[in-house]
Here is the input.
Amino acid sequence: MNIFHRLTIRILKKNKVRTIVTIIGIVLSMTLFTAVLEGAWSGLVFMRDIESHLSGEYHGLLQNVSPETVPKVRKLDSIQKIEEFREVGFAKVNKDSKSDPYLSILSADRKNGLLPVSVISGRMPKNNRELLVSSNMANSSNSEYRKIRVGDTIKLTVGTRSFKGKQLLNSDSYQEGEKLNNTDQRTYTVVGICQRPSDDLVSLNLPGFVALTTADKGDGVTNIAFTLKNPYLYNHTVKNTPVLSNAVAHTYLLKFYGIFSEGSSLKMVIDGLVLVLIVMILFGSVSLIYNSFAISVNERIRQYGMLRSLGATKKQIRSSVYYEAMILSAIGIPIGLLIGCAGIGITLYALSPTFDMYAKGTGCHIHLVLSPEIIIAAILLCLIMALLSAVKPANRAVRISPIDAVRQSGEVSIDKSGRKAGEKALRRGHFYSAMAKKNYCRNRKRSRSTVFSIFLSVVLFISASSFVEGISKEVDNSIAQGTSADVIAQLYSKHYSEEINRLWDQYKSEEQVSEASMYMEADVAEKAFPVKQAYLTDEFIENTYIDNGQVNLNIGFLDDDTFKKLCQENGLSAKKYMDPEKPVGIIYNQQRYVDGSGKSIRFKVIKQDAFPVKAGSVTIGSEIKEKPWFETDVSRVYFPISAMKAVYGKDIMPSGKQNIDMSCQMYFKTGDHEKMTSELDDQIKSENLNGDVIDQAESSMSMRMMVFAARVFIYGFIILISLIAAANVFNIISTGVILRKREFAMLRSVGMSRRGLRKMLKAESLQYGTKALIIGIPVAILISFAIWRIVSVNIESAFYLPVVPIVIAIAVVFAVIFISMHFAEKRISAANLIDALKDENI
Here is the structure.
């Protein structure tokens, strides 16, 4: 260790406060770097794991290839794992159906489990005489084997499908006149029941069901799923490997590697967000550490001049500054790394229940995933940041001449405006304010650096708070304006079938259901329900397209019990409005519209005094006062289901059997939304109905929990970056004041009291805080508005003016400044006056 390094360590020990504050800045910076990078990586791995469980771990799929392709793929150096699915053949299990007549049997090599097969009961087959049957066949009312169970033995006639001499595959839909060829009788034992395999493995065009066996050579058609050793090189590998050239990419998984344009926006958003956060951390951290080194150099500038006069080279002076940066980094980086990993790990663990909602029953849990590459990147970022922060101070230390350094000329430069600073305050008798103004102008760099640090923290806090709170309010509004149902079943059919009617009758009377309603729409092209413009409100006309002086309104049908209840709640005659021959409609007469500025506007559709109103061949008799509990915030005209024939002129009830496209939504309030969702979903699949089930209660809860998670992450980031800014302000103000102790001693020697000194320092504090807030608050509001404009392109929301964050920012800014000044004032007041006058900062 040379003399310069020993001298650097001695100076660091002597100036404990500045050393500690600088180390804290490096620790906070490293904590943020680690938390942001490791948090983003852990989140990406979590989403990748979910997708792997849902749609498979494979990266690519070769479909309908010959068995000879398997060894060629297996021998490739770029391949990590492969999995075979061979077509064994087809067996007729529903002779009277053209939509699902077949059972497609596949032989699966499941050593690597690249494609997901979810076993509901039983186990996977172990030989070519055992079958794993899909649940839609076991539960289907159309299948001859609809009551099949684990342990049953079934005999099947298995062959290959052909049409006009061409072999039909798994991906081919049913062709009128197709045949089964090369058939043979096979006996299988059902060893398990599974969910329908992935669409990549079993095409949606498959006319029937699917079952899996194993160790069967098949009929000569093979599907190969594979993973690459380096998935980031998927495009390059497939393009330059002929045998893989026709592979179908697993885009749902590969998008998390940022490879494909389809769906890759998610990773781009994550990468972009991480980049923005890293830049913000660098910005704040460099400011703190640079100011610390600048203060250190200013404090030792006379010392550097003396060393230069004794023969020290520029290289030795510069290396001492860099050595100081390395020493501080060596202490701060390991501590920050440990705190960052522990902090983000605890945060992810605490928020795990929130993220589990997005795991969709896969069993995946978010947790800290330590990556050596990420940790090394964080360390390098923090080290580079510290060294860059020392570059300018080091260059300044070697540029100044020994004579100027010893004389300390140029430390304070006062221009013409600086000399006149404070004259107005002095004329008004405000001596301490005038002195504060002059002190601000004496060292503009230091003053501006202090103001900028406060400004940066204010802008970050207010703009981020505005964004989070705005999204939170919009989520709450969205939930409030949406349906109050816990579970929604959506069904699509050609008519109101017996199956739909049976499903409704079964679940509306379930013990767990507290309230139920059914809404139905039918697409009858030749039937329209126009309302003349004369009956419509001006607000509605301004925000709606008017065609030939009239508007077609949304017409829908409610189950008779719900419609009757709405009539009673609104004082209407149920007998009149539910007349099966001449029904009268009711309307929710409110429409919500969000204008270009994001402002939500609500207005009536039909004029209050216009009822009853003709809408084509039907009559709208009255409006209802409140939005129905199951409905979203949209205007609709309602009729009872029993009046559908009278409204449409066609019988689309079960007895009518009219082929008309219709949709049906069943809304349920229930105490156990998870159980009901599962039961409804199973029932819809077992009845082979076209539809799905939405767990609305879970969706609403997920939205709120996701906003909460966003709050935790964003406010955690804001707090840490604000601590960096606060440390910077504290460092600049306290150290700057302490370095001026000779000046303050001179003021005290000519009669300034300690109280007067405090007044002057408070006036300086007010200058720093006021200037930063005057600039920072408008900039923060403008940035908040810009963020809202960007977000509102995809999310309808009103601009949220961050009043509360502004008040908090003002209070915190002045608290930090006054604490810094108070600390420094106590230090200089405690110093001996004679010693302070003799001090030369050596």
Remarks:
- The two ends are 22 Å apart (CA to CA).
- Residues 261-265 have pLDDT under 50 and may be disordered.
- DSSP finds 27 helices and 24 strands in the chain.
- Residues 78 and 230 are 7 Å apart (CA to CA).
